[in-house]
Amino acid sequence: MKHLGIYALSLIWAYSGFSQGSKIGTAGAQFLKIGVEPRGVAMGGAYSAVASDITALYWNPAGIAQIEGQSLIFTDVEWFADIRNNFFGWVFPKGRLGNFGLSITALTMGKEDVTTVEKPEGTGLQWSANCIALALTYARRFLPEFSIGITAKLIQERIWDMGSIGPAFDFGTYLYPGVFGSLRAAFVIKNFGPDLCFSGGHLEEDILPKDYPSGTGPVGVELKPDEYPLPLCFRLGLAYDLFATPENRLTMALDLSHPNDGSEKVHTGLELLLRKMVALRVGYRYNPDIREYDPETMEEEKGFLKALEGPNFGCGIRSQTRNLRYEIGYAGEFKQRLGLQHRFALTMEFR
Length: 351
Hints:
Blueprint: H1 2-18, H2 38-42, H3 56-59, E1 71-78, E2 84-93, E3 99-108, E4 112-113, E5 126-127, E6 129-143, E7 146-159, E8 162-175, E9 184-192, E10 204-207, E11 219-222, E12 233-244, E13 249-259, E14 265-274, E15 278-286, E16 292-293, E17 300-301, E18 308-320, E19 324-334, E20 340-350
Antiparallel strand pairs: 1-2, 1-20, 2-3, 3-6, 4-5, 6-7, 7-8, 8-9, 9-12, 10-11, 12-13, 13-14, 14-15, 15-18, 16-17, 18-19, 19-20
């Protein structure tokens, strides 16, 4: 109980200090905020204290400490405008040393023609953009009811022939005190790292100042764009099983999140597991950053329902053999005028 009280006080202190100020839309590397797998997204993002399998590689690195066998995950996110976001992860337990994980996130899009004022039909060149994050995760149970995890990431973003690259870190804790039934708690900080800046490509050019002496060649220069911060985010999560039997379970979850580029958000979700085979999930997110306007007066419409995103929904089909347990999962996420986005995943754990 003493450890639980210290843990709770530290989370309250960290959250109250971190939530000072908000800058909507000022962070880059936004692909890091796209939920890469369906289970957590279907629960509205209320997943920090639920993640105790390989999906924790994205949501809470401390969660992979609960994994007992080697695990794999493959996911595909059908984003809007023909953009895809794919994720691959691998967790391998090492006993008393702890558990290790490797993952890669890749956001890709098709190519488009390069146009100019002089050549509006195209110059014959094409451009594209992509974002990649390579990550190494480590987690360990320091007590039977308490785990800590950390993820080190290398992030790269490219637009045409210009790019930025830099490190980032995720920190997570997972607490299962065992004194309040099935109550679990989690504390996560995601995408902590230095600002990034684009360079190279079309930011480099040769210029010849007018006042240079004749016969002097051009001088190579590089335009210096503004640096941009990573989408740093703090999350506090709780989860509780409303009922649980050896084959059936109903889990309720709540996450509070505060990003550095937006307002505080509330995530809620439910997961119903039937006969250890079928999982049904639903979730909502309260997002004050949503802006809705009356089409006639163009005045902003306010209210609780206007800031409610969802419902997110999804399902999973689980099965297992003597040496393998796997799940095929799906989630649908409503993104207002951008429509319904789909996610698919295959997870496997080897015994």
